[in-house]
Amino acid sequence: MADVRIDVALAPRHLQVTLDVPDGQVVAVLGPNGAGKSTLLALLSGTLAPTAGSVAIGGRDVTGLPAHRRRVALLSQDALLFPHLSVLDNVAFAPRAAGVRRAHSEERAREWLEAVDAGQFADRRPGQLSGGQAQRVAIARALAADPEVLLLDEPFAALDVAVAPQLRALLRRVLAGRTALVVTHDLVDVVTLADRAVVLEAGRVVEDRPVRELVESPRSRFAAHLAGRVLLEGTLAGELDADAGGEVHRGDAVVIATALGPVAGLWQDDTAAGPGATALALVDPAAVSLHREAPHGSPRNCWPVEVAGMEPLGGQLRVIAHGVGSYGAVAQGPAGGVAPTVTAVRDGVSRGEAYVPEGGRSVRLAADITPAAAADLAVAPGRRLWFVVKAQQVRVYAGH
Ligand SMILES: Nc1ncnc2c1ncn2[C@@H]1O[C@H](COP(=O)(O)OP(=O)(O)OP(=O)(O)O)[C@@H](O)[C@H]1O
């Protein structure tokens, strides 16, 4: 068994993490810069000691053990091979250091080099390898040490985008059945390599869920951005078609008060909640349409926005925009309060009640549209348009 149990604090870096990884599971570790991802790996590998708590691997308490006695291999974005040793000697280094006889350790090193399709580089020096080749060798070296746990810190970050897919396929093979933690900023790594995803923010775990759930219904801003969604944080006002006050249940059309103003969506959480509860609305940019004027009709969210920029996305364009205060003929809406904001959404903007409070100016929204639609609407930075999404297509969850 090579399960990992980590329950540590590192006071100077404000990190406090509890995490159990069962034997054979690959966990993606995600989070913004400075969240503590690398620090967590360092606490596991033994290059940093916690100020409190413990680390156990395969049921052994390794908290007091030095890095080389933990049976943990760390692979970082730079291959960090010994420049003065041949590739073969680099890979044979760990078994040699563990007391395996030269002939045997070289044999093992050759096997691992073959396994990562790098057998032909055995006699080269690291300086004669490309970045992708060096990273293959680094993987072989890590595996030759026969680790119980593999830690990968942005393993493709320093590589050409052209080589990353091959290496990813290799890592997928290598990671099958192993206990591993992979720090990454790349959604492709998350979905292709990991079973489960943990999101760190400011040294704390804010999400810990199966990868599929995380990409389908992210609950943290970081995961939403990674999954290409927009996450709006707010407070539950109540049901869309009822007077505010009662509890809402899964499938109910609800309204939440956000920095963008009232947002209507479907409550998708299994837990019931009442007005005032923290709520998260998830918007898929593919469900957002752009209009010159706010349309009428069924319950829709209509947000006046100013276009910030555009990015190509497959055959489409992703339009990035920010909420703006009311403009044109739209009157300023109420400054707050539950009931008026519900009315604003239910009755639509045709009555001139759509508005974005001051804070909405910093809310980043995205809409995926065709290049033809972009041309028709003359989408360009600075242009003011309406982002429109049906309430049915906004999923709302309980926040933390
Ligand atoms: N060597 C160090 N000495 C002191 N503090 C550090 C050191 N390295 C990181 N920190 C601090 O610890 C916190 C966590 O940093 P860490 O590098 O673990 O984050 P990260 O999530 O890996 O970020 P990134 O994605 O930028 O690599 C940050 O506040 C950072 O400033």
TrEMBL record:
Gene3D superfamilies cross-referenced by the UniProt entry: 2.40.50.100, P-loop containing nucleotide triphosphate hydrolases
**What Pfam families does this protein map onto?**
ABC_tran (PF00005), TOBE (PF03459)
Output the Gene Ontology cellular-component terms.
membrane
Q: Which domain of life, per UniProt?
A: Bacteria
Q: A Gene Ontology molecular-function term?
A: ATP binding
Does the record's keyword annotation contain ATP-binding?
Answer: yes
Q: Which residues form a coiled coil?
A: none
Q: What is this protein called?
A: Molybdate transport system ATP-binding protein
Q: Which residue numbers delimit the ABC transporter domain?
A: 4-227
Q: What is the species listed in this Swiss-Prot or TrEMBL entry?
A: Raineyella antarctica
Keywords assigned by UniProt? ATP-binding, Cell membrane, Ion transport, Iron, Iron transport, Membrane, Nucleotide-binding, Transport
Q: Which InterPro entries match?
A: AAA+_ATPase, ABC_SmlMolc_Importer, ABC_transporter-like_ATP-bd, ABC_transporter-like_CS, ABC_transpr_FbpC, Mo/tungstate-bd_C_term_dom, P-loop_NTPase, Transp-assoc_OB_typ1
